[in-house]
Amino acid sequence: MIEGIYAITPSGLDENRLLESAEAVLEAGVATLQLREKGLAHDLWIQRAQSLANLCAKYGALFVLNDAPADVLSVLVQQGELDEAHFAVHVGRDDLSIAQLKGLLGERVRVGVSCYNDWSLAEQATAEGALYVAFGAVYPSSTKPLAVQAPLSLFGRARANAYNSVAIGGIGLGHLRALVEAGADAVAVISGLFGASGPTEDLLEPEQIGSEASRWIEEFETWRSRA
């Protein structure tokens, strides 16, 4: 089950900065880390996925790949680089289906699914064996400004049906109470942890990232203990 703070790495970082930033949130206690990139070369995808997979295994965290091409996923699995106990794939409506991923990567692969604001997608994904369903954007998002808005009522519905749910999109520290009380099991965060969603001057240094991650974890746990 996915719970707590779900970190998504900023895109476009060089490998050293990516690994330093990722380790900062993992060391603080973040238990789920997603690598999401657009347009990476095949070899870079494999290299960065291998490095982050090893880092997540070191901290006992779940490593999630998003937007990785099918051939990259296939190579990583064939090379034995992805520990099944610490690995999952995230997909959206235009990506491979859960059935296709299981055919490519094996029946034991775990898959998280973007369901946007559509309850029927969550029902379908869960019936197909999804690890979690993600709803969002729950708030206006600078990363995806045209994203549909998902009502918080979806999280209560997910909890009533024992679906593992993740909130995504525009989430700030001040939103955690509402999301936890609505029933979200986890919240996905980029700029709130790293300062930016890409390699800009706003990107925090690793020490600052670690401090922010600790603050987010503490806030989430505070409201979860009261829910």
Describe the structure in brief:
With 227 residues, the chain is of the alpha/beta class. It is built from nine helices and eight strands.
Structural write-up:
- With 227 residues, the chain is α/β, with parallel strands linked by helices.
- The chain is built from nine helices and eight strands.
- The protein has helices at residues 15-28, 42-59, 70-78, 98-105, 119-127, 153-160, 176-182, 191-194, 206-226; strands spanning 4-8, 32-36, 62-66, 87-91, 111-116, 132-135, 165-167, 186-189.
- The protein has an eight-stranded parallel β-barrel with strand order 1-2-3-4-5-6-7-8, surrounded by six helices.
- Strand 5 (111-116), helix 5 (119-127) and strand 6 form a beta-alpha-beta unit.
- The longest helix is centred in the last third of the chain and has 21 residues, at 206-226.
- The mean pLDDT is 94.
Shape: globular
Tell me the number of strands: 8
Average of per-residue pLDDT values: 94
> How do the strands of the widest beta sheet line up side by side?
1-2-3-4-5-6-7-8
What is the C-alpha radius of gyration, as a whole number of Å?
A: 16 Å
Total helix count? 9
Distance between the termini: 18 Å
Helix content: 40-55%
Main β-sheet description:
8 strands, parallel, barrel
Name the helix and strand elements from N-terminus to C-terminus, one letter apiece: EHEHEHEHEHEHEHEHH
Which residues sit in consecutive blocks of at least 5 with pLDDT less than 50?
none
Structural class comes to alpha/beta
